[in-house]
Known about the structure:
The structure is a homodimer. By secondary structure, chain A is of the alpha/beta class.
Amino acid sequence: MTDERLARAALTATAEPGDALLNRVIDRLGPVGAVEAIRTGDIPGDLLSERVVRRVEHWRIRSAAADPGRDLEICERLGGRLLCPGDPEWPTTLDDLGGERPYALWLRGPGDLRNTCLRSVAMVGSRAASSYGLRLAAGFAADLAERGWTVVSGGALGIDAAAHRGALAADGPTIAVLANGVDVPYPASNDGLFAEIARRTLLVSESPPGVEPHRLRFLVRNRVIAALCRGTVVVEAEARSGALSTAAWTRRLGRVLMAVPGPVDSRTSVGCHKLLRDDPSATLVTRSEEIIEAVGRIGDDLAPVPSGPVLPRDRLEPTARAVLEALPARGAAGPAQIAVKAGVDLATVNGKLGLLAAGGFVERCSGGWRLTKSAKQPK
Amino acid sequence: MTDERLARAALTATAEPGDALLNRVIDRLGPVGAVEAIRTGDIPGDLLSERVVRRVEHWRIRSAAADPGRDLEICERLGGRLLCPGDPEWPTTLDDLGGERPYALWLRGPGDLRNTCLRSVAMVGSRAASSYGLRLAAGFAADLAERGWTVVSGGALGIDAAAHRGALAADGPTIAVLANGVDVPYPASNDGLFAEIARRTLLVSESPPGVEPHRLRFLVRNRVIAALCRGTVVVEAEARSGALSTAAWTRRLGRVLMAVPGPVDSRTSVGCHKLLRDDPSATLVTRSEEIIEAVGRIGDDLAPVPSGPVLPRDRLEPTARAVLEALPARGAAGPAQIAVKAGVDLATVNGKLGLLAAGGFVERCSGGWRLTKSAKQPK
Lengths: 379, 379
């Protein structure tokens, strides 16, 4: 465990997620320096203002109480890990959040966050959903999963849970981004669902293990859901629904915003209709094919379509190319084998493999990494 | 009855509605000349082509069989009349149809077509509507009627009938534009509805009395519905519904196109969702307030809002102003009284009253014509 990793773990326990001031401090001093500055109160003067003094004092108190080593230990015991910016598995789509990006993410489960989110759709909506909305969410999620799309949601009651369950029913990957620690089963009735997601894919949180949900954190969490995916489908939403905050983030991040219509006299479709009326960028969707068509359209901007790499092999930089060429033509190889064959160190191999996966050249498999079908074809 | 009127009556019996070739012949020769040219086969050579010879021969046969005098008599006996382009009551919005404008319209009922359509909304949809659609159509129509809007539809089963009935229930004006003669009760089960509309407002047709409905005429008729109104609401429509042809005309004519969403698994909402997905100009509406907001927005382009005349009195041309000033400050006057007081002939008075009504200065009432509320206020 590097100091930097430990520092980032500490920072997730220090400030509320996505604090732009803390991200500025990290940008300036690095994570280790940021932790130190908070501890000593030595925040760079030009970043401080009267307005934020209280917040920084609050950080100091929380930082003193934080025990990042123990948090990391707990998470590891749960089969989890801390994912930091710069890690090969870090989804670069999160960088679109700018000053509000996460300091780090706590993960629980066997999935690779970056790869799993390359082709992902957020599906969100009311907690107090109607049977109509629940049926659609489960059906859309199952269809998306069957076609190789990851369904991302917030693990809440109602539409969120129906979407996760639909994806699981189709044996597909689904990710729950929680507003509490990955070991806190909230809501309690989704306990079994969380266990299943942690067993199959990933639970994700910006907060360390043990952190309880908080009303404000739900809204802040929504930006991560929007940023991870190519687009967001609002299945059902009341006039004032948290799902509309995910929609707003989706719009702000330039992702595809979709909403499902419903009966005009249904309370839980009012928010969807409002979105479709007020936001010219919002697309009305009624079938999973329409969802896939909408997110597929901008595919090349965010991630390659699975049919072939966007970047030709010969435009890869030398190290990435060496790693790619170290992969066997058939079958798979582990990172250590690849490192030896490519003549680079293991950390570099891991980094390049992540980039090559994002480029559609390689994919994870049980034996390690292998060439994608399209990467095998000469270009 | 002038020759010109008789000729137009004959033309409605001669060709299918909205024939651009016939409209060109009328433009060139006038209605009387057009009838004569059809009878003698003497169509101007530059308008004729091999492609249309058959059609013109068909006109000749139908023209020979037509009895416009008798048609006019039958219509009059039913409390009806023939409305011709140039009449004060002729809605100039129909001119937007260009080459496909009606040759004349057969009306049945006491309403003034032009005035009644100044603030009108077309409400159309599936014959095989769901209870959801029927309930909404009736509710929207009643709301619109209560707020002084005329509901125009096609008199068909399903959404059309529900819209007419909703307007009637709110004691509001409603107009049925039929694809058959105004004396032909089609569909038969709407017999009572047609009688009530004829008693209260207007039945409208491009075809003379006695003409039976024909599949093609339904689609051609839809352009009149679209042209008469400021906007069209598609309440429910299957994937291939006649209502979508009204929607296409609405779009082509630059009117406001609206569609009501519904459950995505409802067969009769598929067409509405398709419109909302495919046509960026289509507005999703869920409440009557949203319909009024949408058509009200472009109000000034098509017709004045009822709160006050758009044109100040002193910008009226002298004859119109004389007619306006001949109206009593309180109560009403008949055209003959007004003619005497203004010192102009009856035909001129009728013409100017139509224009003044379109300008929001005067309105029809049981005693003839009266000043509108806003016209009474000094400007």
